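ok so i was messing around last nite and threw this chain in just to see what happens. nothing serious, just curious
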Amino acid sequence: MAEFIYAPPDVPLDIIHDDHELILVNKPAGLLSVPGKGEHLADCLMARLQAAYPEALLVHRLDMDTSGVMVFARTPSAQRHLGLQFERRHMKKSYVARVWGTVAEKEGHIDLPLIVDWPNRPLQHVNFEAGKPAQTDWRRMKIEDGTTRMRLFPKTGRSHQLRVHMREIGHPILGDPFYATGPARDFPRLMLHAESLKLRHPDGGKGMLFRAPVPF
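result:
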């Protein structure tokens, strides 16, 4: 594997929504959600957001290579409220991915437990003895030149869940530097985007749906 060089995109913040409790941001691909270890990995969405909103608090993460909707809290109580929604699986998330090959079925369900692959971390792998439960529903959108556009609905929030699950059914996500091989890897970015996030507002519990347009 080629040596990793962190070169985050120099783009302005893309704020989807902000109010007294929430900030929704469209994260670009190639930018860390939170700082990594070392000064060279300090630039991240969290730091950029806090430059504009010093009170912003982390609720969840997206992989560096994934783009799309992220929610941040503006108060500790909102952070707790949103954190519980994730923990209890009340948040509804949908992703769009382009995957290698032609997916024959229209929809399906994947139930494969995952755990970190310690000698090769941060990679994850399927482990039926020690893995944590991981479920993904999927729906085929359309076939595109020997690849397939899919909508993915994670029912759990395991690290790299969608990436490993797609690889395990024989259709790795295009451009995935960890789980795709050969021509499936030769794309300018990971073709995975967090398209929508449905949540209950911490102040009053109103259901709200936020979207970010798919950039590929």
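not much to say yet. The helical segments are 45-52, 76-87, 161-168.
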